[in-house]
Amino acid sequence: MLLKVISSTLIIISCTLLGMHMSYRYNRRIYNIRVLQSILAYLETEMIYYSTFLSQAIRNSIRTLSGEWKAFFVEMASVLEDKNEYSLADAWQECLKKIRNNPYIGKEEYEIMYRFGLQLGNGDRQSQVKYFELAQHQLKTEEKKAQQIGLSYGKMYRSLGILLGIGIAIVLF
Amino acid sequence: MNIDIIFKIAAIGILVAVLNQVLLRADREEMAMLTTLTGVVVVLLMVINLISDLFNSVKNIFRLY
Amino acid sequence: MDIIQIIGIGIVAAIFSITIKQQKPEIAGLISIAATILIFLIIADKLPYILGVFNDIVNKTQIDTVFVSTLIKIIGIAYITEFGSQICKDMGENGIASKIELGGKVMIMILGLPILTVLTETVLRILP
Q1: Which domain holds residue C108?
Q2: How many structural domains does chain B have?
């Protein structure tokens, strides 16, 4: 009897944690999009107004931030510094591929950044500004969408985890 | 042979109802449908054993061979 | 004090059934099935005693035991049939319920036929 109670409690707790984790993914994704937006804004200033090298600009813009995109940009900066034979677009794609399967990064942001990387460094300053604005705009739309999804699905996963745990415990009891 | 089973069935029923509400709130009608189905099947599996018990005991008592 | 247990099971099952019926009527039906069976299983311990007393009386009065065993079988069939049809009616399937009752009636009729033949033979023997 005691063993049953203990094991049921364990099942419920673990299922609840699983649900919390699933709903945490949505919040984390929204956070990542926001971080990405501020990184891009910083990068834009560095590139357009200070005209620093891209690797240095990247290092400057991610200094105070965290999240999954920071890893990508750190990698990007080091690739740009180490391997001079890469073109910017190649290096960008190479580094993006490494974070493609990250659960905290949605497919939409990935696509936006993929397209942005292809355009980065092409054309003059005016068109660069335009590309930055485009990416920012798209990210803002994605953030709104992610917020809506996160609000309903996050709640759903949280209660789903608890209820599923209780259900398994009852069926096995 | 215990009253446990009624509590268990009722708990599963309430659980399925709540799950249904949650999934409907999140616009997942098909998942809600599936949970209802799963709940009914699980409860049915529990009750089927009881029914076979009942029929066996009726057979034995009234000698319906 | 098994009667208290029976009443308790009944009331608890009824309350649960009402609670769930609005959300999930199919599971409410399964609860009533479970309650019915549990109550019967409590009764099932006592029934053999009653039937034993019945058999004793029959043995003392020297009635043909075939009749009595047929009677007991008929009671059993009637009980199961009632159980099945009542559950179907609770779930709102009156059509299936009446089919189950029809099946029960036919089965009882088949069991009763030997008695009927004995009766007709007796009547024919009495008549010239």
Answers
A1: 47-128
A2: 1
Taking the C-alpha atoms of residue A154 and residue B26, their distance in angstroms, rounded to an integer, is 9
Residue A35: pLDDT band by 50, 70, 90 thresholds? confident
Contacts of B15 in chain A (CB under 8 A): 163, 166-167, 170
* pLDDT lower than 50: segments of chain C: none
Residue carrying structure tokens 């209660």: A159
pTM assigned to the model = 0.73
Q: What is the pLDDT of residues A124-157, one digit of tens each?
A: 778 888 888 888 888 899 889 888 888 888 888 8
> Is C85 within 8 Å of C101 (Cβ atoms)?
yes
ipTM confidence: 0.80
- Cβ partners under 8 Å of residue A11, min gap 6: A165, A168, A169, A172
Average pLDDT, whole number, for chain B? 86
Q: Give the C-side interface with B, CB within 8 Å.
A: 8-9, 12-13, 16, 19-20, 23-24, 26-28, 30-31, 33-35, 37-38, 40-41, 44, 47-48, 51, 69, 72-73, 75-77, 79-80, 83
pLDDT of residue A84: 66
User: How high is the pLDDT of residue B1?
Assistant: 56
Number of other CB atoms surrounding residue C47 within 10 Å: 19
Distance CA C78, CA A94 (A): 78
SS3 of C12-37: HHHHHHHHHHCCCHHHHHHHHHHHHH
> What is the domain range of residue A150?
35-157
A2 within some domain: no
How many structural domains comprise chain C? Answer: 2
Distance CA A158, CA A15 (A): 10
- Asked if residue C68 and residue C14 are part of one domain, the reply reads no
Residues of the domain holding B35: 4-62
Domain count, chain A: 1
Query: Is A3 contained in some domain?
Result: no
